[in-house]
Specification:
The structure is a single chain. This protein is α+β, with helices and mostly antiparallel strands and 562 residues long. Helix content is 15%, strand content 31%. Strands 1, 2, 3, 5, 6, 9, 12 and 14 form an 8-stranded antiparallel β-sheet that branches. Strands 4, 7, 8, 10, 11 and 13 form a 6-stranded antiparallel β-sheet that branches. Strands 17-16-15-26-27-28 form a 6-stranded mixed β-sheet, covered by helices on one side. β18 and β19 form a beta hairpin. The radius of gyration is 24 Å and the shape is globular.
């Protein structure tokens, strides 16, 4: 296979011992612990208040009446966190299943055991969650005709703020006549301002993927002199409608507009033998981020790993050489090794393309903004499992994340397969088995809130609520880490089915999608883009659209709005 000529690459580390660059940074950069603002648990800059509901874990009670749960199983309480409360409509006391009488505090497993019906898709949930479930509540002959319950937060101190942001994880399934709102009340005035509404006019009834396993980020204006803000989650429906679950509530200082330049990267994955779409995607990326510092390809560059397929990709890259960023950073996927040839042969073809001597490594992107570290993870041996990894790679990964955290840097991590219970489709059980060390990798990331992992493989839509996920772990940092789905240059997939144990996946359409990443000193902005498909009959198009965007603050370098 020919070696593609490219501009010189710098600051790449493939081994566990680090690099001269890393050594110099350690020697010349202060390594003080990140400063923290107030909040519950271990805080980060800009977080004023957080409530995870996890402190209720030791108050959970055994199953009472829920017919779908085995007697003696522990998992629910109606006792709210300190200074929180639940206000139920008068009809709620007339009957219904006790576990779900108004807002309940439970676990994802206990709730799903009652009946799955997409409850199990709330993958970003961690430990104890808050649930309003009119469907399960109605599984009793004496259930009232309406479900009406409000979850009320503790008053949050907002003195001296002009604007704050309320964020929370949200898992909402709608039905005709069902509604849900979030409101804010300032200084106990008795007047509520609506911040969010779900109903049949804003959410597609029965299933709306944008609101399943999703998150909300709501701006709240704070008038001068205001001391406190109280938030309410109100859920109301006729009997036997659907549900709403929330988790990980936080109130943040609002971010000002970004200051200074950004260091940008292009991101594509799952090309799988579609070089025409790849060439078009690269041209579209060059049109929107011509000064990007790196091109990140997140696995499945080829369909099976033959020399001819790699040559096709080389030809596309050569044709685009005039607009390509300075650095190529690439991760290995499963489709790189499907020819039946020995693993070392297939691996070395990938390494030839990647320009390094290991499937894992480290890069630093230099651009108009801050330097951006990129850590690459990958499969080291033949399957199974899909991603066998050495202890050397795992230990290197934890060490490098620790290093960049000391530098207060946001870190991009790229790896082809998603970790279990992160982005779209990874709630499906078999996705948790791909990595030899899935749980350990998740735990390492969970203690680094400055880490953002970009993963491919699933080909799932950007439009889904779990396109980008803030994932928390047991004993990890309360902010967890971010995971983002890279989309695909090839076809799109999606899940079908009510119950996790009977789920199926289907190809939905031909697509051509990828990301841009813009990193400022105090934030990272990840944008999901649609480049439009091309064919032999139509080799170009005018599509170059933004589908989704998420702003991920640097938890250790916060720039609040003045």
């Amino acid at each position: 296979m020919s070696v593609l000529p490219r501009r010189a690459r710098r600051a790449m580390v493939a081994g566990a011992a680090g690099s001269l660059l890393a050594t110099c940074l350690l020697a010349t950069t202060a390594t003080a612990e990140p400063s923290h603002a107030g909040g519950n648990g271990r805080p980060t800059d800009g977080v004023l208040y957080r409530q995870s509901f996890d402190d209720l874990a030791d108050r959970l009670q055994p199953r009472a009446e829920e017919p779908g749960i085995e007697a003696g199983t522990t998992g629910f309480t109606h006792e709210a966190p300190e200074d929180w409360s639940v206000e139920n409509g008068t009809q709620m006391a007339e009957g219904g299943i006790q576990e779900w009488e108004g807002w309940s505090f439970t676990t994802r497993d206990f709730w799903t055991d009652a009946e799955d019906q997409m409850r199990g898709r709330f993958a970003r949930a961690h430990d104890v969650i808050a649930v309003a479930d009119s469907d399960e509540f109605a599984d009793a002959p004496d259930a009232p005709e309406r479900f009406d319950s409000t979850l009320v937060s503790a008053p949050v101190d907002v003195r001296g703020r002009h604007e704050v942001a309320l964020t929370f994880d949200s898992h909402y399934r709608g039905w005709e006549g069902q509604s849900a709102t979030v409101t804010v009340e300032l200084d106990g005035s008795g007047q509520e301002t609506e911040l969010l509404r779900y109903d049949s006019g804003t959410v597609t009834d029965n299933y709306d993927g944008a609101h399943i396993n999703a998150s909300e980020n709501l701006a709240v204006e704070i008038p001068n002199g205001t001391r406190s803000a109280t938030f309410r989650w109100h859920f109301e429906s006729t009997a036997n409608s659907w549900y709403w679950a929330i988790d990980s509530v936080a109130v943040h200082e609002a971010l000002d507009e970004p200051r200074g330049g950004a260091t940008s990267a292009w991101v594509v994955s799952d090309i799988q033998g579609d070089p025409d779409d790849l060439g078009h995607a690269l041209r579209d990326l060059a049109a929107v981020r011509p000064d990007a510092a790196g091109l990140l390809t997140v696995g499945d560059q080829v369909a099976s790993g033959t020399p001819a397929q790699w040559q096709e990709i080389d030809d596309v890259m050569t044709a685009a050489a005039g607009v390509l960023p300075e650095q190529l950073v690439t991760a290995i996927g499963n489709h790189e090794s499907y020819t039946g040839e020995p693993w070392p042969v297939l691996r070395d073809r990938f390494l030839d393309f990647a320009g390094r001597d290991k499937v894992w490594g480290e890069y630093v992107l230099e651009g108009d903004g801050v330097d951006v570290p990129v850590l690459v993870l990958g499969q080291e041996e033949a399957r199974p499992p899909e991603v066998p990894m050495s202890r050397e790679q795992i230990e290197w990964f934890g060490d490098r994340l620790d290093h960049w955290t000391q530098q207060r840097k946001q870190v991009l991590v790229i790896s082809h397969f998603p970790l279990g219970d992160t982005v779209s489709a990874s709630w499906i059980p078999w996705y948790s088995d791909h990595y030899q060390y899935n749980d350990e990798l998740t735990q390492i990331l969970g203690d680094h809130p400055n880490a953002v992992i970009l993963t491919g493989h699933t080909h799932y839509p950007f439009e889904l609520g779990d396109w980008a996920v803030q994932r928390r772990t047991d004993g990890g940092h309360p902010d967890g880490f971010w995971a983002v789905n890279t989309g695909a240059v090839q076809v799109e997939w999606d899940a079908r089915g009510e119950h996790t144990d009977g789920i199926s996946e289907i190809v939905t359409r031909d697509i051509n999608r990828g990301l841009t990443v813009d990193v400022y000193r105090d934030r990272m902005v990840v944008t999901g883009r649609d480049f439009g498909v091309v064919t032999g009959d139509q080799p170009t198009n005018t599509v170059n659209d933004v589908v989704r965007e998420v702003t991920i603050p640097n938890p250790y370098v916060h720039s609040p709005r003045g």
